[in-house]
Amino acid sequence: SMKLLVSMIQMKYRVDDWVIYKPFADSESELLREMSSRVLILDLLKNDFFYDYKIYIEETQKIKKVREHQLFPIPDSTY
To answer: Would you write out the chain's pLDDT as a tens digit for each of its 79 residues?
Structure first.
């Protein structure tokens, strides 16, 4: 259906993508803004009006709901 297609296009990341999560991406504090974790996208929360993704945080092994503006692509490795 067309509606489903539109919602797919709006999502920047997909399930199983590894991305960088910055909990305080829009903080005034540079220190907080720089905090980041490697996370795995578990689910796209299409019916959630506030959160966009459900993620798994590698270092804390926690699952959390987040908004898209808190997620960033992992820079290409320099190997």
So the answer is: 455 555 555 789 999 999 999 999 999 999 999 999 999 999 999 889 899 999 999 999 999 999 999 999 998 866 6
Q: Which residue intervals of the chain are DSSP H helices?
A: 2-10, 30-34
DSSP 63: E
Domains in the chain (CATH in brackets) are 2-73 (2.30.30.40)
- Give 69's Cβ-side CA count (13 Å radius): 6
Q: For the chain, first and last CA: distance in Å?
A: 42
Report yes or no on whether pTM surpasses 0.90: no
